[in-house]
């Protein structure tokens, strides 16, 4: 069984000053996996590696942050889909800029979750929520502080102890008053949400 035009390829990664894409994975419905080949200038046909592909259809992805392109290879006539997303860049405190990495978010949060009843799946979802939150701002670059702030909300929903641990490091708690203030905020938030859910 060979790949046919049902192949679909999710997301792209080309490092280029103007158009930054991330290649995530490739999927062919009949073969399960098709690794596409990329060059800095463009994309090779994933079936015959022809360097020229023709875009036959372009649509905005369901999430609103990606573009799906249906492409056809002029050489072998096979069709495939690419999903292009802009690379979200994070400005570090040092001033260096690096691509946003969901795994880094999860690694940072996982430390705060030690010994807590939190599943790997919960962490994955948290990483996704953080990325969606940051992308929804429509900025190409976000400071690393913003990434930390975007973690606080979803982590609070997940586990209050992990939240306090994470907040104490991220917000540089220095004394008991800092903890008391954070706990008070947490309680206020809870009673507010409690009231809302009873309305
Ligand atoms: Zn081809």
From TrEMBL:
<keyword id="KW-0238">DNA-binding</keyword>
<keyword id="KW-0863">Zinc-finger</keyword>
<dbReference type="Pfam" id="PF03477">
    <property type="entry name" value="ATP-cone"/>
</dbReference>
<dbReference type="InterPro" id="IPR055173">
    <property type="entry name" value="NrdR-like_N"/>
</dbReference>
<keyword id="KW-0678">Repressor</keyword>
<dbReference type="GO" id="GO:0005524">
    <property type="term" value="F:ATP binding"/>
</dbReference>
<dbReference type="InterPro" id="IPR003796">
    <property type="entry name" value="RNR_NrdR-like"/>
</dbReference>
<dbReference type="GO" id="GO:0003677">
    <property type="term" value="F:DNA binding"/>
</dbReference>
<comment type="similarity">
    <text>Belongs to the NrdR family.</text>
</comment>
<comment type="function">
    <text>Negatively regulates transcription of bacterial ribonucleotide reductase nrd genes and operons by binding to NrdR-boxes.</text>
</comment>
<protein>
    <recommendedName>
        <fullName>Transcriptional repressor NrdR</fullName>
    </recommendedName>
</protein>
<keyword id="KW-0067">ATP-binding</keyword>
<keyword id="KW-0547">Nucleotide-binding</keyword>
<keyword id="KW-0862">Zinc</keyword>
<keyword id="KW-0175">Coiled coil</keyword>
<dbReference type="Pfam" id="PF22811">
    <property type="entry name" value="Zn_ribbon_NrdR"/>
</dbReference>
<feature type="coiled-coil region">
    <location>
        <begin position="169"/>
        <end position="196"/>
    </location>
</feature>
<keyword id="KW-0805">Transcription regulation</keyword>
<keyword id="KW-0804">Transcription</keyword>
<keyword id="KW-0479">Metal-binding</keyword>
<feature type="zinc finger region">
    <location>
        <begin position="45"/>
        <end position="76"/>
    </location>
</feature>
<feature type="domain" description="ATP-cone">
    <location>
        <begin position="88"/>
        <end position="178"/>
    </location>
</feature>
<dbReference type="InterPro" id="IPR005144">
    <property type="entry name" value="ATP-cone_dom"/>
</dbReference>
<dbReference type="GO" id="GO:0008270">
    <property type="term" value="F:zinc ion binding"/>
</dbReference>
<dbReference type="GO" id="GO:0045892">
    <property type="term" value="P:negative regulation of DNA-templated transcription"/>
</dbReference>
């Amino acid at each position: 069984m060979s790949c046919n035009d049902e192949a679909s390829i999710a997301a792209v990664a080309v490092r280029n000053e103007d158009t930054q894409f991330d290649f995530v994975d490739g999927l062919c419905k009949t073969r399960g996996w098709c690794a596409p080949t990329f060059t800095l200038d463009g994309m090779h046909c994933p079936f015959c590696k022809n360097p020229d592909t023709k875009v036959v259809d372009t649509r905005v992805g369901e999430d609103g942050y990606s573009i799906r392109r249906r492409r056809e290879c002029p050489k072998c006539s096979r069709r495939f889909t690419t999903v292009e997303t802009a690379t979200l860049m994070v400005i570090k405190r040092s001033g260096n800029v690096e691509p946003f990495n969901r795994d880094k978010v999860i690694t940072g949060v996982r430390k705060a979750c030690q010994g807590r009843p939190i599943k790997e799946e919960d962490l994955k979802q948290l990483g996704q929520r953080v990325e969606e939150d940051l992308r929804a701002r429509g900025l190409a670059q976000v400071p690393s502080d913003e990434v930390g702030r975007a973690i606080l909300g979803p982590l609070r929903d997940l586990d209050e102890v992990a939240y306090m641990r994470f907040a104490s490091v991220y917000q540089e708690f220095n004394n008991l008053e800092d903890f008391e203030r954070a706990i008070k905020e947490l309680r206020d938030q809870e009673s507010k949400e409690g009231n809302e859910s009873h309305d």
